[in-house]
Amino acid sequence: MNKIFTNSVMKLLVPFILLFLMLFDGQLSNMLRHVTDNTIYFNSHLFLIGLIISSLYFDKRYVMIVSLVLGAIFDWHYYNIIGINIVVLPLTVLFIYVVFKYVKPTIFTLLMSLVVFITVMDGTAYLLQVIFKLTNPAFQKFITNNIGPTLIMNIAICILFSYPLNKLIEKRSND
Length: 175
Fold this sequence. Notes:
This protein has 175 residues and is an all-alpha fold. Helices cover 82% and strands 0% of the residues.
């Protein structure tokens, strides 16, 4: 009974935790943009790390619905149009479930998959922004000024939080 109660409470808290991480990601990313005078873009992906951890604990339908709703909020809050992240986030969540169906979650596989998920998520968002003429289509600049620094920063964050993340992964494996 206690496990059912805990799971129900977490299902209520997870969307708010992910919303907080999404908003914090935006603030952290903007702060780092100002530090580099908008020449290098370090995009924080704590929100994505939260989605990955959520996918390890909750069923696909629940995480898909949460990612769809938060994708709409993300689009409305950051772009003032609904469409990019309402598509990209659920597709990324589906990809997360496919990967972890075949790969045992460990801190190492989480780190390696994070690189893939960030690249796919940011690359897809960039492609959609180019299609809708919301950004400059300079792909080389996107790779060197955006994806590279973003991956380095998020790998560092993941390594920094590797101990608590590993405990969450181990707890999930023991359940």
